[in-house]
Amino acid sequence: MEARERLIVGLDVPTVTEAEEKVRALGDSVLFYKIGYQLVFAGGLEFARDLAQEGKKVFLDMKLLDIDNTVAKGVENIARMGMSMLTLHAYPKAMRAAVEAARGSGLCLLGVTVLTSMDTEDLIEAGYQTDPHGLVLRRAEQARAAGMGGIVCSAEEAAAVRGIVGADMAIVTPGIRPAGADKGDQKRVMTPAQALKAGSSHLVVARPIVKADDPRAAAEAILAEMAGALTA
User: Fold this and answer.
1) Is 205 exposed, middle or buried (0-12, 13-18, 19+ CB in 10 A)?
2) Which one is catalytic: 22, 56, 63, 93?
3) What percent of the chain has pLDDT over 70?
4) What pTM, to 2 d.p., does this model score?
5) Active site residue 34
6) How confident is the model at residue 71, as a pLDDT?
7) How far are the Cα atoms of 37, 74, 96, 122 from residue 115, in angstroms, in the given order?
8) Three-state DSSP class for 95?
9) 156-176 b/e with 16+ CB inside 10 Å = b?
10) Among 8, 45, 167, 203, which is least packed, fewest CB within 10 Å?
11) Ramachandran sector of residue 177 (left: φ over 0; alpha: ψ -120 to 50; beta: rest)
């Protein structure tokens, strides 16, 4: 894949109108967009369907987790929308239900391992007796066993995860920040070039692009860095 197929721009904006403006500003420089809770609850599902119909790829970041039947029925409808990627929390039963529901659709299911805003103290507070690295690796093994299309993890874990899931599964990494960019609420981050070299297949970049004075220039700078890393 070329850099343009690997960059996913997170449309983490409050309204569909603003999302439409960002997509227009980015033009043909960006192929792939992520739509999450903020935009979904402002009319973003119809917007996601429209983007897919216009030939864009859409990563619907819903982080599903529920009883098996509820997950399966949700996945079936999302597949019919023409989405390219969908997240769910990497719990084995939920992943198995989702894989069966998505079979034959072309929808790439991604298991969310540990959020990049969480560190060891956060996991302990949540009741886990492990660090992020250990939990990510366990969930990567479970995602592979369930037949998932890929996983979501920090770029810091990408190299170790690639050794577990092999060459074919996607490794989608948020928390990507160009050198010198503000980390915001992310605690485990890497630059685009570092993430690709570590084994990431797709990079999710939101604020450094959508909050930039010139979003297209910001995206093209990141794409140039990615292209350099892919050809190095």
Assistant:
1) buried
2) 63
3) 95
4) 0.92
5) no
6) 98
7) 15, 22, 21, 10
8) helix
9) bbbeebbebbeeebbbbbbbb
10) 167
11) beta
Residues in CB range of 126: below 8 A, 6 or more apart: 118
Query: Rounded to an integer, what distance in angstroms lies between the CA atom of residue 147 and that of residue 2?
Result: 25
Mean per-residue pLDDT, 24-31: 97
Burial (Cβ within 10 Å: 0-12, 13-18, ≥19) of residue 178:
middle
| Eight-class DSSP state of 118 | -
Residue 138, pLDDT > 80, answer yes
Position 202, amino acid:
H
| 56 within 8 A of 39, measured Cβ to Cβ | no
Number of other residues whose CB lies within 10 A of the CB of residue 218: 22
Whole-angstrom distance, CA of residue 92 vs CA of residue 217? 41
pLDDT of residue 188: 52
Distances (CA, A) of 153 to 54, 76, 117, 232: 29, 24, 11, 24
Q: pLDDT at position 156, please?
A: 87
Per-residue pLDDT tens digits for 117-129: 888 999 999 999 8
Tens-digit pLDDT profile for residues 178-224: 865 655 554 556 899 999 999 999 999 999 999 999 999 999 999 99
Residue 59 contacts residue 34 (beta carbons within 8 Å): yes
DSSP readout, 58-83? EEEEEEE-S-HHHHHHHHHHHHHTT-
